[in-house]
Amino acid sequence: MKKRWYDYLWIFTLLYLGLGFFNILFAWVGLLCFLIPLAISLAGGGKAYCNRYCGRGQLLTLLGGRFGLSRGKNPPAFLRSRWFRYSFTAFFFVMFFQMLWTTWLVFSGVQELGQFVKLLWTFRLPWHWAHHGTMLPRWISQFAFGFYSLMLTSTLLGIITMVLYKPRSWCVYCPMGTTTQLICKSKAKSGDLNA
Ligand code: SF4
Hints:
The chain is mainly alpha-helical. It has one domain.
């Protein structure tokens, strides 16, 4: 099948992770991966982001499929269960808002800039080399460290579940996938009511 430009978005994901290693401010670009899927599903585009434009999903398919890094097993039932997907999504957004709160504390001068990346919401990895003392306010860097932590953590979880199960097993419980699915469902429901 003829390849389209959006079949290469996995390169964007790799670039994103790589550039954040050298300059943390590139982490801001990752907001696109939050906002675009929401905008597409709110505009009635359904799961088009997941089906076509998600670089992370493509990367997992590539690594697990073409490169054979996946065991190819079915993910366990609990991972697919509604309670787990919704709980994980809720947890993910609580962590997101906690990251915004930390950014606020740095903005208001209560807290110092933390030049580290927090992996799996627990482990602090030194990342000071990626901060170059910009002329920008420090909260901008704090947000970047926090957001990059989220992106790296979700990528790591995606890779672990790719290795253990099928390549796209992360998509089963991905918070963005769950959120866009909920948006699609509520739009379909309101469509039914209006019909
Ligand atoms: S479920 Fe998440 S990782 Fe998978 S394609 Fe959708 S947004 Fe990308």
